[in-house]
Design a protein that fits this description.
Keywords: Flavoprotein, FMN, NADP, Nucleotide-binding, Oxidoreductase, RNA-binding, tRNA processing, tRNA-binding
Number of helices: 17
Shape: globular
Largest sheet: 8 strands, parallel, barrel
Pfam family, one: Dus
CATH topology of the largest domain: TIM Barrel
Number of strands: 8
Oligomer: single chain
Mean pLDDT: 92
Strand content: 5-15%
CATH architecture of the largest domain: Alpha-Beta Barrel
Organism: Rosenbergiella nectarea
Protein name: tRNA-dihydrouridine(20/20a) synthase
Order of helices and strands: EHEHEHEHHEHEHHEHEHHHHHHHH
InterPro entries: Aldolase_TIM (IPR013785), DUS-like_FMN-bd (IPR035587), DUS_fam (IPR001269), DusA (IPR004653), tRNA_hU_synthase_CS (IPR018517)
C-alpha cells in the first residue's frame, strides 16, 4: 500500500516537469465517484495522465476515524491525489484531515454535492448547502489543522433554494468565514427528495453560464466546473471561462479520452499515451495486488472501457468480464484480452 515518500511526492500544484510552469493539477481532474474511483481505478488512470488531479471516492469522517479498515490506503504513484471527505462536524473533519495529511494526500475536498438519502441522513453532502455557516466552520477547522489545500465540491443550488443570490451567499460565506479559495461547482442543482442520485446527475438542467458568472463575481477564487462534460474540446471551451474542469463518468466509461489530456490541457510535450503500453504498465501492480489477495476483477473492471470505439474492443471487454472473476485469474487473462485488440488499436493510431 502507501509508503510515505515525502522527498519524491509531487504536490497538488505540481507543474509540468522539465518545462516552464504552466498549470496546476486542478486544471483538469477526474471526479470522485462512489464505488468507482477506488485505489485500483486511480492507479490505472494515472497510467493515462500524469498531471490531472485524481479524487478518491467520498470517505466519511467516521470511517476514517473509527473504521476498522484502512480507508486512506493508496499508492504513491497516484499523486497528485485528493481525498474527498463526507462529514459536517468541524472537529471530526479536522481530525480526518490531519490523518490524511500525515498519509501524504495532496489535497482535501469536502463533499457538499451528493444528494442521496443515506448521505443526507448523515448530515453531509448537498444538504449542507442550506447551512453555509456550518460548511465554513468545517473548512476553517480543516485549514487550521493542515497545510495542504482544502476545497469544496458543491452544486449551484438545492430544491427551491436555487437562485443565483443563494449560490453567491453560500460561496461568499464559505470563502470569507471558511477561508476557502477553491470550489468545484457541479452546474446542476440537486433535489434532496424525489430524485435518485442518478436522476440528480441527469434531470436538473445544466447551467454553465451561472458558473461562468460566479467566476466573474468572485475573480479571486479558483473555480472549476463539473457536469455533463464529455470531450477535451468541451473542456477547452469551459477553460475560457473558469480555472478548471472536472469530468466524471465519461472519464471512467471512456478512459481512453485521457491519453491526450497532458498535451492538450497541460502543455506537456511528451507523446500521447499508448493505451496498449498503459495496460502493460499495470502488470507489476496487478501481480503485487494478487499476491496480497486482491481479485483480478477488482482491478480490471476499471479498464473495460479503455478501447472504446476500436475494433476488437468488444472482445477485450468480454474476455475480461468472463474470466477476470474466476478463481486463480492472473495477468495472463489481461494479456489474452489485450491480444484481441492491440493490433487494431495500433493501426487506428498509426
Amino acid at each position: 500500500m502507501h509508503e510515505n515518500k515525502e522527498l519524491n511526492k509531487p504536490s497538488c500544484s505540481s507543474l509540468i516537469s522539465g518545462a516552464t510552469p504552466l498549470y496546476p493539477s486542478n486544471r483538469f481532474s477526474v471526479a470522485p465517484m462512489l464505488d468507482w474511483t477506488d485505489r485500483h481505478c486511480r492507479y490505472f488512470l494515472r497510467q493515462l495522465t500524469q498531471h490531472s488531479l485524481l479524487y478518491t471516492e467520498m470517505v466519511t469522517t467516521g470511517a476514517i476515524i473509527h473504521g476498522k479498515g484502512d480507508y486512506l490506503a493508496y499508492s504513491d504513484e497516484e499523486h497528485p491525489v485528493c481525498l474527498q471527505l463526507g462529514g459536517s462536524d468541524p472537529h471530526d473533519l479536522a481530525h480526518a484531515a490531519r490523518l490524511a495529511e500525515a498519509r501524504g494526500y495532496d489535497e482535501i475536498n469536502l463533499n457538499v454535492g451528493c444528494p442521496s438519502d443515506r448521505v443526507q441522513n448523515g448530515r453531509f453532502g448537498a444538504c449542507l448547502m442550506a447551512d453555509a455557516t456550518l460548511v465554513a466552520e468545517g473548512i476553517k477547522a480543516m485549514k487550521d489543522a493542515v497545510s495542504i489545500p482544502v476545497t469544496v465540491k458543491t452544486r449551484i443550488g438545492i430544491d427551491e433554494q436555487d437562485s443565483y443570490a443563494f449560490l453567491c451567499d453560500f460561496i461568499g460565506t464559505v470563502a470569507d468565514r471558511g477561508e476557502c479559495d477553491t470550489f468545484i461547482i457541479h452546474a446542476r442543482k440537486a433535489w434532496l427528495s424525489g430524485l435518485s442520485p442518478k436522476q440528480n446527475r441527469e434531470i436538473p438542467p445544466l447551467d454553465y453560464p451561472r458558473v461562468y458568472q460566479l467566476k466573474q463575481d468572485f475573480p479571486q477564487l479558483t473555480l472549476a466546473i463539473n457536469g455533463g462534460i464529455k470531450t477535451i474540446e468541451e473542456a477547452k471551451e469551459h477553460l475560457n471561462h473558469v480555472d478548471g474542469v472536472m469530468i466524471g463518468r465519461e472519464a471512467y466509461q471512456n478512459p481512453g479520452m485521457l491519453v491526450d489530456i497532458d498535451r492538450q490541457l497541460f502543455g506537456s510535450t511528451t507523446p500521447s499515451v499508448d493505451c496498449v503500453a498503459a495496460v502493460e504498465a499495470m502488470y507489476p501492480y496487478i501481480e503485487k495486488e494478487l499476491a496480497q489477495g486482491t481479485y483480478l476483477g477488482h482491478i480490471t473492471r476499471h479498464m473495460l472501457g479503455l478501447f472504446q470505439g476500436i475494433p476488437g474492443s468488444r472482445q477485450w471487454r468480454r474476455h475480461l468480464s468472463e474470466n477476470a472473476h474466476k478463481a486463480g485469474a492472473d495477468v495472463s487473462v489481461l494479456e489474452q484480452a489485450l491480444a484481441k485488440v492491440s493490433q487494431q488499436y495500433r493501426e487506428s493510431v498509426s
